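[Automated response] Your request has been received and processed.

Submitted sequence:
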Amino acid sequence: MVSSSTDDSLGGKKRIVDSSAGDLSVRLTESAEEVDAALALRYRIFYDEMAAKPTPEMAARRHDFDSYDDVCDHLIVLDRGLGQTPGSVVATYRLIRREAAAQRGRFYSESEFDVSPLLEMKGNILELGRSCVAEDYRNRATMQILWRGLTEYVLHHDIVVMFGCASLPGTDPSVLAVPLSYLHHNHLAPEELRPRALAEHYQNMAVLAAPDVERKQALTALPPLIKGYLRVGGFVGDGAVIDHQFNTTDVCIVVKTDLVTGKYYRHYTRPRSSNGSER
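Generated structure:
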């Protein structure tokens, strides 16, 4: 299924997500070609840059994909200065709502985490994944418009909670002891919202005792995306998971969207300078 950014593209109704700032715009994909561009961007970031291990079919097509890409919505940021070409897709997010996950039998995150506390919640929930930004666009302006688009999507679908796997580079928890311990001691989700790494994958995040964790060092070691989630009050689940395919250590992020649609909606819909600092 190709994601559509309109309620009814034939009827010309308003796009669910439709924002722009300078040359950048954000919306959902509207064609198979745009989905292909998002999958190709993911391949370049995850496999060429981060040395993840592709399947033979992925390597042949130079696309990152799985069965969830047929049922999800693909959020994309485009640089209109590059024209109407696949290369104009410079950032992407994969968005999976409850009904889309039902078509695949479970959410993607459930291969690593027990998310039953979230599944039991009333209301719409949203899994975030496969977030990536082209190297030349890893700046404040791109992150602002990406979050603005995500906020518009959350408001349209009345999402109450967002969650998903977020990754730290590397597969050795001892090397990641400072950021993992910091997350566990300072941002552990309340029990009623707390996912837990599946027993067969569980890695203890509390490698260091709380007094031994230096906050500044931990924040420096955390990827920008995880820090972005923390800024809007995000939590982490109990336990990390090593993902050998992607050469990462994953944590499960949980964000209550009333924080995003309040604080971040106001922040990202204000006019901003286009020459912001690196995220």
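Summary generated for your ticket: The longest strand covers residues 159-169. The first helix runs from residue 32 to 49.
If you did not submit this request, please reply to this message.
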